[in-house]
Amino acid sequence: MSVRDILDNINYKLVKGSLDTEVKNIIYDSRKVNKGDLFIALRGQNSDGHDYIDMAIESGAKVIVIDKKMEILDDVTVIEVDDTRKSLSYMASNFFSRPFEDVVSIAITGTKGKTTTSWMIKNILEEDNKKTGVIGTMGIFYDDKHYETVNTTPESYEIQKYAREMVDAGVKYIVMEVSSQALKVGRVEGILFDYGIFTNLTRDHIGDGEHSDMDDYIYSKSLLFKQCKKGIFNIDDSYYERMVKNSTCDIHTFGRDDKADFRIDGFKLFRREHFIGVEVNIKGVINDTFLINTPGEFSVYNGVCAIAVAYLLGCNIDSMKVALSKVAVKGRVEIVPVSDKYSVIIDYAHNGVAMENILTTMKAYHPKRIVSLFGAGGNRSRDRRFDMGEVSGKYADLTIITEDNSRMEDVNDIMNDIEIGIKRTNGKYIKIANRTDAIKYAIDNAMEGDIILLLGKGHETYQDKNGKKTHYDEREVIKEIINS
Hints:
Layout: H1 3-6, E1 12-16, E2 26-27, E3 38-40, H2 53-58, E4 63-66, E5 77-81, H3 84-95, E6 104-109, H4 114-127, E7 132-136, E8 139-142, E9 145-147, H5 156-168, E10 173-177, H6 180-185, E11 193-198, H7 214-222, E12 228-234, H8 240-244, E13 250-255, E14 262-272, E15 275-284, E16 288-292, H9 297-312, H10 317-325, E17 334-336, E18 343-347, H11 352-363, E19 370-374, H12 382-395, E20 398-401, H13 411-422, E21 429-431, H14 435-444, E22 451-455, E23 462-465, E24 468-471, H15 474-483
Helix pairs in contact: 3-5, 4-9, 4-10, 11-12, 12-13, 14-15
């Protein structure tokens, strides 16, 4: 594609060279440049792409895109833009022939619930025979394909690249988790989403490299609702008014508030064989009852949000009911069928707040015991470990302290830190360094009516230990234990 076509609808200045230069690919990592590529210099937290322009040219880059004044003497085309990261989003869209114009796009933002809600929507759409792809925390998924991603919302080039791949494969709907950071720096710049969703907002992601304060966090989230046609909002959230304040989209709401379009009229917790979930009544635009196969009040909000989106997309009510009654999100309160007498659940909770949420949620189902099994990440805050130990000691009937991604730390040192936290309570606990042995202990000693929580790994399928990542999937571990 020519530079001229790649720069369509972008403000730019041709510093030198020709707009008719043909480009093979757009690259923002100088180490991946090949002959004939365009290199765009992005500013990151720890490095500046402008410092690697010489390396990119040595590797064969024909076009350089910058956003600061600098002299480049080599025989290459040089383009100057206002903001390279935001420009990359438009450039990638042009390069991949604007794939978001060929699908129905659903963007989800919020502190919690993005992953679960996106998969609930995907399950409903596919139950209604609508081919769907997902971009989010767990990666990129469509058909039987799965690509790993580094961030909740990938860089704009990857978003456009995989969206084009999905469209070419016949995908008609794309559900995407959109983080506040992605909105802030412009990774989804130029995309007009068909639907934007706001799940909730809590004090999170405030600090170095993220958001300077709560106002910045709220503002960044709210940007989504200036670039979508229809917005679906949690009306019960304390930040609802600030989310809709400057929105330019049509507004639809869900929640308990009497003004909600999709009103939660009540729910009850529901537990039976291999099912721990909720039954929820909805009034308003829809008047019906739904069974949702994930537990707790937060599942009510996630489920009703998914129902609202599906309804606006024209999905059949029966498709919603079937999909939600069997929905399972990998690593998010994921129930693993093991025994009729007790339940095993895998969840990604890996800090004190997340652990308290899932432990209190499970307590509401009145199990015989809650068995909490977890470790903590190495080379991370020790305070987090103290908090996790204290929370588990407070809410679980038995805590099994074990390993997680210990990285370059000694697992015993990490477990000792967790133990400091649990000793602040009267909670019973045991330490088993090997995670597989710990899971086997939990299963071998399970009592009828127990809920066993395997916390921390969630959707991950690896162990990071002593500088090396090895395959580790708790589902496979459980299967091997049961089979043996």
